């Protein structure tokens, strides 16, 4: 029980719902009693739905110039949802959405691994986001989404290409910041390439 003055308040139900059975609808009752003993109840009917998406593929995916790479993942949960599918969304290096590369794969059985073939038309660096989704209503209303798996994809050919994805963030002065990058090329692996780091246009030694 909690005591409050007048105002707007929030109560997080998530920890309580995660401990309950997901097989049936859950009824939550909120009771409010004022200083005079007047009691009022509010009933909420909640469908608890668990969705998850897993894959043991690493964050960086290298694709040679044949333009294809098989990606696999396992969607779990959501057996009571309609229109279940795994969605693939693609972005360029600057974060711009590339809807012509987007894909979707229908999901029939929870816990079964599915595979998709990724195809690209141009050499470059891409970001891919994969999520498992469905809807509570048969007409597609009330969508539910799982966690999102994010990847950096490097589609490369003979010319060397440098891939380095770093989300925006901040760092304290004098802290160490590591830049992870991948240099890819179909040329002879014994050949060396020169990589230069610049700061505001000035070369960093």
Structure explained in plain terms:
It is a single chain. The protein has 205 residues and is mainly beta. The chain has one domain: Immunoglobulin-like. It is 2% helix and 44% strand. It has one helix and 14 strands. It has one helix spanning 14-17; strands at residues 26-33, 39-46, 51-54, 60-63, 68-77, 82-92, 103-106, 114-119, 124-135, 143-155, 161-163, 182-184, 198-199, 202-203. The protein has a five-stranded mixed sheet with strand order 4-10-9-6-7, with no helix packed on it. The chain has a three-stranded antiparallel sheet with strand order 3-5-8, with no helix packed on it. β13 and β14 (202-203) form a beta hairpin. The mean pLDDT is 79.
The level 1 CATH classification is: Mainly Beta
Strand content: 35-45%
Helix content: under 10%
Shape: flat
- The helix tally amounts to 1
What are the secondary-structure elements, in order, as H or E? HEEEEEEEEEEEEEE
CATH topology heading: Immunoglobulin-like
* Count of separate structural domains: 1
The name of the CATH architecture is Sandwich
